[in-house]
Amino acid sequence: MPLSRRSFLPSLSLLAQPKRLNVLLITVDDMNWNTPNCFGGQVQGLTPNIDKLASEGTRFEHAHVTIAVCQPCRSALMTGRYPHRNGAEGFQPIHSNVPTLQEQLQKAGYFQGIFSKVEHLTPAAKFCWDVVLEREPLGRGRSPQRYYEAARDFFAQAKAAAKPFFLMANSDDPHRPYAGSADEIRTFGQTMDFTRRVTEEEAWVPPFLPDIPGVRKELAEYYTSAHRADQSVGAVLRALDEAGLRERTLVMFLSDNGIALPFAKTNCYLHSTKTPWIVRWPGVTKSGAVNRTDLLSGIDFTPTILEATGLEPVAGLDGQSMVPVLRGKPAKRERIFTVFHETSARARFEMRCVQERRFGYIWNAWADGKREFRGNGQAGLSWKAMVEAAASDPRVAQRVKLFSTRHREELYDFAADPDGLRNLAADPAFAEERKRMRGLLREHLRTVGDPQAHAFAQEFPA
Secondary structure of 34-53 in the HEC alphabet? Predict the structure, then answer.
């Protein structure tokens, strides 16, 4: 497969340098954190390649992206800054004066490539790619065989250049349109190839969604796409092994946000930002390890890669390097903060969240009891089915109303309620917890210069 590339003739100075660590970042699009079997997914045999990677490295049970929508999530990953500090609050380019990970890697002589989702890291000049492969040559980002061929060619080019590499391999699966769905035929004019169709009987309905026919049907299509995403992950890893680069390559795997259904993507719920983060670093991480303690954030990616590759830290980052954690030391971090600004339609729905191991607190700055939320999670079969079911099922009606208009504050105890089904914000028994979380969020917004800091402090003064 021909790849777009610059000249990669090695310089004598680079050849004289000691070999640096290679970095392979694999992302999937809209995969819920608990879809892979190794993270508790209930569709048997769905993700053998992701599971194998987890068995060879460390998986993190408290990892979150910073914002649950594709472009700003990826911009936060590659800048180590919150969206309001890098410029990409939604589908905008980052500010030209914000340093990127790719700029630092280019200075160090790295050969860099990106597969698909290219338009979600802009402006292009800030990301210094040597190899750029758009989604179309990759079977619209959905062909495992094309990912294998592209990865094989990229690794060969990196070896020929005698340079360390950074590759960001992005699968468009399991983003809509789902494999084998009517939506896929409408969108692409055909059904893209897939090797396993998950049936509605096999589909697992996570408890934050109602188990009704429309939801189950869409989830079956989603899981079919998730299986194909897993095959693409396996294809890239197979190419790495065949190139003989496994032992010199740090591999990270994650999803850019949760599933594109209600109470997940484009929000600040647990299932919005929690991600199935796996790290395999030969000689550093332990095979099959599970980290149930440390909290990872998307803004940690850039400082982590800088330290892992031996590069100097960049000033002004919001994240922190997780290299000590990967080496077995505790992070001593008790919480992370997640945000949401706007949808792909540029509709602003400002939300802020404090996420701890046990409690999660959300402030819905937009919620006034009248305005209704509109986002990607309502675009498929599930939301339509929920609205129809709400006419006769009070439990579904309550969920539909909550998702549509929200409460100003939401507080969840994930130890007792892992899917966030009971909002405790108005419960007197949790008044002190709510007050504590308000204080944490107030101080954080002030510290990072969040545009909503003043509004929050006025609404909830100390």
Answer: CCCHHHCCCCCCCCHHHHHH
